[in-house]
Specification:
One of its GO terms (cellular component) is cytosol. This protein is of the alpha/beta class and 347 residues long. The protein has 13 helices and 12 strands. It has a 7-stranded mixed sheet with strand order 2-8-7-6-5-3-4, sandwiched between helices. A 3-stranded antiparallel sheet has the order 9-12-11. The protein starts with a strand and ends in a 6-residue tail after the last helix. Bound molecules: pyridoxal-5'-phosphate (PLP).
């Protein structure tokens, strides 16, 4: 199967496996694992932050960020289809006592005027105080779309004026940076905490980091232990993260080019794709607009040897390119997808 379901589908490459096998290791929980310490230093530099903490998953990174930035009984603002809102099982409420307000965005982006007006002192006894703004870049549910930096700066400045703290769910911030042609540190500037996932486009089998100031990362280490994320000889997996940061960042441009090629060819074959949304490694296909039901479309595609997934958007599937998808795979998908969906002609 040509597995375009997600960029989490990547398998560790031979070079990455060698690095894992040869990793120097120690007790990570005691901060004695040299490979984990190296990865944390590299990730902090990559993200332009003082320090970083190695974690098993990006969900844990997001949840730790909310735990250290939030305050019980206050409000977390996120875009209505962000991962934190729809895919973390209400963790913000469960772990951190936060009330989450989902704001309907434009391609995942929230505008400054969508933030709440300041709480007037006469209202402070009953209105929850907005305490955290979390944004997602790239934005998964919107098809891997990238926030222009000016939009990030506008909404984060407005949130700061309201006294809010800022988290970037940058699970795919390396994709955003490559798409913008900027260092990742630039894309992460101004946030208190940043999540980076190592097991999506970067190709590690697992692992993520949270990054931020030294003071916040001290708190993050406490929460990491509390969440049960403090490990032992974790250098074996952290070595995959080191390898990913050294070898797999710049090459994300190849995934983006393949997604673009796929998207353009599908449009040419009469498949409903909004090319404006194809900004990184996702191609969203509106099978609903083509009169095909989602489950039926997925089955037909599977039968044709192509794996896609449904999205949170009704009638919309996604194809995601990653480092195990070749030019040849894209050529085959370009023939198989329109045929499976019964597309007719070009646009
Ligand atoms: C934007 C975003 N944040 C966080 C996550 C969580 O990643 P993990 O599966 O490593 O917990 C995902 C996973 O798809 C994601 O897309």
């Amino acid at each position: 199967m040509i597995d375009l379901r997600s960029d989490t589908a990547t398998l560790p490459s031979p070079g990455m496996r060698r690095a894992m096998a040869e990793a120097d290791v120690g007790d990570e929980q005691r901060r004695e694992d040299p490979t984990v310490l190296r990865l944390e230093r590299m990730a902090a530099a990559f993200l332009g932050q003082e320090d970083a903490v190695y974690l098993p998953t990006a969900t844990m990174a997001n949840q730790i960020a909310l735990a250290i930035l939030g305050e019980r009984g206050t409000e977390l603002f996120v875009e209505a289809t962000a991962h934190i809102m729809i895919s973390e099982l209400g963790g913000a409420a469960m772990h951190s006592g936060l009330q989450t307000r989902g704001v309907v965005g434009d391609r995942g982006r929230i505008a400054p005027e969508q933030l709440p007006p300041p709480v007037h002192p006469s209202d402070a006894h009953h209105r929850p105080r907005p305490s955290v703004l979390a944004i997602e870049n790239t934005h998964n549910s919107s098809g891997g779309t990238v926030w222009p930096l000016a939009d990030v700066q506008a909404v984060t400045a407005a949130a700061r004026d309201l006294g809010m703290r800022l988290h970037l769910d940058g699970a795919r911030v390396a994709n955003a940076a490559v798409a913008l042609g900027l260092p990742a540190a630039e894309v992460c500037r101004g946030f208190d905490t940043v999540t980076l996932c190592l097991s999506k486009g970067l190709g590690a089998p697992l692992g993520a980091v949270i990054a931020g100031s030294e003071e916040l990362m001290r708190k993050a280490r406490v929460e990491k232990h509390r969440f049960g994320g403090a490990m032992r000889q974790a250098g074996v997996i952290a070595a995959a993260g080191v390898y990913a940061l050294e070898h797999n960042v710049a090459r994300l441009a190849d995934d983006h080019a393949r997604a673009r090629r796929l998207g353009e060819a599908l449009v040419g074959a009469g498949v409903a794709v909004d090319l404006e949304q194809v900004q990184t490694n996702f191609v969203q296909i509106d099978v609903g607009a083509m009169g095909v039901e989602t489950g039926d479309a997925l089955q037909r595609l599977r039968d044709a040897g192509v794996g896609l997934t449904a999205t949170v958007n009704h009638g919309v599937l996604r194809a995601v390119t990653h480092l195990d998808i070749t030019d040849q795979d894209i050529s085959e998908a370009i023939s198989a997808i329109p045929a499976a969906l019964g597309a007719h002609g070009g646009a």
